[in-house]
Design brief:
Blueprint (H helix, E strand, L loop, with lengths): L2 E10 L2 E10 L6 E7 L7 H12 L3 E4 L12 H13 L1 H16 L4 E11 L1 H11 L6 E5 L17 E7 L7 H13 L4 E6 L12 E2 L4 E2 L2 H18 L2
Parallel strand pairs: 3-4, 3-5, 5-6, 6-7, 7-8
Antiparallel strand pairs: 1-2, 2-4, 9-10
Helix pairs in contact: 2-3, 3-4
Length: 239
């Protein structure tokens, strides 16, 4: 196995963006690609490592940039300021992730008929909106993502299969939002799954998350189980 990684620039309406991608160079054929949407801080080492791990599974891992080349938050206040414009303008959010989808399909190692997207926290919301838009992707996976539905994508048929991986004790996604999400997915005719982990808060996949007052705590079992669920899901949607 020879994992190759690099960055690639792309544009969204004049905004310069930079993704990190990885693939196994021992395979000669085109292969499925998996977009990886970052949490509220921006495209960081966490999602870059996920790209490498996905490359080891035989995919092209493509860590999306939602904010702009080199833009990263370093405090909760900065992170919130970077994320909030996309929460306020879900059309902008969708436009930005669709730019990444177009970019990944241009990579020479990618089978552009087989693309999925995964996302963490804010990134989970991004990939759910991609599915909500009716985009032609095989599937999306939300890890402790936000569930709130946008106003601009109502009554849209969902073609992508959907897997949501959720912590039962996540204070950022109360039970009412979970129920609303289930109803939304059902009404849209989606092939959807929701896997809820007990005794689990927000950011359960992030080993450095340790702020129970804020609601972000790493949970090793949920981390391991959710990754396994994702692997099985991707194998199914790319079959």
């Amino acid at each position: 196995m020879a994992i190759i990684s690099n960055t690639v620039g792309y544009l969204d309406n004049g905004v310069a963006l930079e993704a990190f991608f990885a693939f196994d160079d021992t395979f000669s054929n085109r292969r499925p690609a998996v977009l990886i949407n970052h949490a509220w801080a921006g495209r960081d080492g966490f999602v870059e490592e996920k790209a490498v791990q996905l490359a080891a599974l035989g995919y092209v891992g493509f860590a999306v940039d939602m904010y702009g080349k080199g833009i990263l938050g370093t405090t909760p206040e900065e992170n919130a300021a970077l994320m909030q414009p996309f929460i306020n303008d879900r059309a902008l959010l969708l436009q930005r992730i669709k730019a990444a989808l177009a970019a990944v399909k241009l990579l020479p190692w990618v089978d552009d008929t087989k693309v999925a997207a995964i996302g963490y926290c804010f990134g989970g919301l991004c990939v759910l909106d991609l599915a909500r838009s009716g985009a032609d992707v095989n599937g999306v996976v939300s890890f402790h993502g936000l569930f709130g539905a946008p106003d601009n994508l109502k009554d849209q048929s969902i073609k992508a299969k959907v897997l949501a991986l959720h912590g039962h004790d996540d204070p950022m996604v109360p039970v009412e939002q979970v129920i609303a999400f289930e109803q939304e997915m059902t009404a849209a005719g989606a092939d959807w799954q929701l896997l809820t982990f007990g005794q689990t808060m927000h950011a359960f996949t992030n080993p450095v998350a340790n702020n129970p007052d804020f609601g972000t705590v790493y949970q090793a079992d949920a981390d391991r189980r959710s990754w396994l669920a994702m692997k099985n899901f991707l194998a199914e949607v790319f079959a």
